[in-house]
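Notes to self after the Tuesday call (sharing in case useful).
The group wants a holo model before anyone commits to mutagenesis around the pocket. I volunteered. Ligand is S-adenosylmethionine. Logging inputs and output together so the record is complete.
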Amino acid sequence: MAKAKETEQKLIKSRKRVRDHGEVFTPDWLVRDMCDLVAAQCADVGTRFLEPACGDGNFLVEILRRKLAAARALVGGRTDTARFRREAFRALTSLYGIDILPDNVSACRANLLRTWAAAHNAKLRRGARWAGCEQSARFVLEWNILHGNTLKPDGSEETPAVVFVEWQWTDDVVCGTEERLSALLQEADADSLFSVRDCGNVIGPLPYWMLGGELPAPERSAPAEPPMPPKLRRFEGGMAEIRADQSLQFLLAL
Ligand SMILES: C[S@@+](CC[C@H](N)C(=O)[O-])C[C@H]1O[C@@H](n2cnc3c(N)ncnc32)[C@H](O)[C@@H]1O
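Result:
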């Protein structure tokens, strides 16, 4: 019955959008079934996902819900603790999306923000700290959910280059490193998309609730440039990569 009702979900906005961009949304029941295929990764707050054609975020919202449930479980079911707030924020920073249509990008950001905010109880949603968190969440979403063409990651006349930020956490402090998608794809192997590299930190280190207050929103009108040669950070033993269990999962929903 629930399934039947959901098939009435509006999956198409206009015939023109279907023709021009293949925009047909996946019904909620199918989103849940597909997320079940990577249930363990969805239930891990830190595992990163990239939705290369994110639409209004139906996959990313479902994954965020599961990650928020995992964050709640980490703190014994409570949503009124500083630890829950941090884990919930970390969950948000782990989700990435690209869409070619700007209105879908805005809708995706708004849907993720609403889902994230709703997971906090009244106690956490008060005061200056909450205001800082909310502003920082908007800031992160502007970096993580991008207008772009996944098939032309270096940009074109119509779409900007796709440049993500990799967020690295140490307790409450976050540091963001700019990462060009085309360079990431050139290097990617099956287990790791974000390599540990040293392209210069563009954000932080800052407490996560201060991210949005310190810096202007990203400027995304840069012309297309050739991909930067990847610079890998050197450790004593040579080059290092983020472990496979932190790898970026692809959700190909096209
Ligand atoms: C079939 S819909 C899927 C939307 C969502 N992933 C879902 O499953 O409901 C395809 C989406 O991809 C976007 N899109 C089409 N071509 C794209 C491209 N080259 N790069 C990024 N997004 C693209 C469309 O705007 C649309 O939102």
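Two things stood out.
Strands lie at 49-51, 95-99, 145-147, 163-170, 173-180, 201-207, 234-235, 238-239, 249-250.
Residues 127-144 form the longest helix (18 residues).
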